[in-house]
Amino acid sequence: MTSIAKPSPAETAILQVLWEHEPCSVKAIHERLSQTKSVGYTTTLKQIQRMHDKGLVTRVPGEGKSYDYSAAVDEASTKSRLFDRFVKTAFEDSVPDLVMHALGTDKASPDDIEKIREFLEKLDKT
Question: What integer pLDDT is reported at residue 126 of this predicted model?
């Protein structure tokens, strides 16, 4: 059995939908996922069934024969564990390397950098 603390990328995408819109039917989850990626309905259904078996989601009877699903794991703590795993794996547990990499790309706008400065100033004050 996979640890519920470390959902896969596909599971995390489904959890993100549920954190924002729970409870949801498989159909509603699939429609939201389909807005950003190409995924078959049966693939979504099977993934959610596996997540239920792992304890990542709960379900209650919905309309007809369907179920409505909700996340069984907390968003903040799950994201924190995913972030920690990412930093450890991709940046050898170095937060400064992560930050320098992120800021060294063209994706960080001047507004983003200003928000980061403000955040760092708040950290310095505490």
Answer: 79
| Cα–Cα nearest to 44, from 63, 55, 31 | 31
| Cβ-defined contacts of 37-42 (< 8 Å, 24+) | 37/13
Within its chain, how far is the Cα of 21 from the centroid? 13
Dihedral angle over CA of 5, 11, 15, 16, nearest 10: 110
- Judge whether 74 and 80 are in contact, CB under 8 Å: no
CA distance 19 to 23: 9
- In whole angstroms, give the CA distance from residue 39 to residue 45: 10
The model's pTM: 0.76
Answer yes or no: is pLDDT of 49 > 90.
yes
pLDDT digits (tens, 9 = 90+) for 104-118: 877 788 898 899 889
